[in-house]
Amino acid sequence: MKPRKALAFSVAALTTISLAACNRGSSSDAAGGGKKITIGLAVANLQADFFNQIKQAVSAEAAAKGVTVVVSDAGGDSARQVSQIQDFISRSVSAIIYIPAGATAAGVPVKAAERAKIPVINVDRNAPDAPGKTFIATDSVAAAKQLGDWVIKQTSGKGNVGIIQGQIGTTPQVDREKGFRQALATAPNLKVVAERPTDDWSQEKGFANAQDMIQAHPDITVFWGQADAMALGAAQAAANANMNPKPLVLGFDGDKAGLQAVHDGKVNATMVQQTQLMGRLAVDSAINLVNGKTVPTQQLQTATLLTDKDKDKAAEFIAKHP
Q: Which domain range does residue 197 map to?
């Protein structure tokens, strides 16, 4: 996805979801003394199911608590997101739930919000130079290590690995890489022979990167897409190349398409994140911060290893995401 130029104070990019009208009693309880709370939700890219899951959970929790949510979609464009969050600040929202669109300029909106005394809750991605009041995410280092340990068992610690990376420098990419390599460090005969980044975590880029890897290393036995979409691309590339033996294909996230692919055996394993829980925690943290309460600086959640052997669990997650 090519970056688009920022649209200063792009009100057209914002969708307002009014959730307080039917729940006035809860609004008083949530806000503490009847104070009206409006949360700005800045999403990296609503085309991704992962971020949509978080948005759905934020909307539902806010409705239950009588809170208004204003949503912006950066479409993967960091510069656009900076303008969108500036618009939130101009509107004097009570708090901002922030999922950075990329590593570039990720700290700029946090610093701007802090100057306006608006608390920021970072979800999934953090800005090391300017963290929000709290960071809510999966413990991706531990989860990726668990996935790597599973791969070692399946391969007896031998083989050639191709890693399709996410957007370089973002929190999930860095942490997933770290955890997976921690596992591989214990299996010297399971070697990373190819590694290519993507700028948008997409299936299309995953497919193209996997194709290039197969041409250069036709003996790859394991593909790991650092997000499910890229794993789906790798699975498609491996199928098109008629690779024999069929390589293991791994993902991460547990989005709907990824869950279905694991259920159907197209992807061998993924780590399922608790996106609904993260959305609820973000709203509750925002309310607490607005009311002057303290929240943990980090709220890291566990992920669930899901393999193609557990079709019942995959179906359960498809029906109701954790």
A: 140-273+306-319
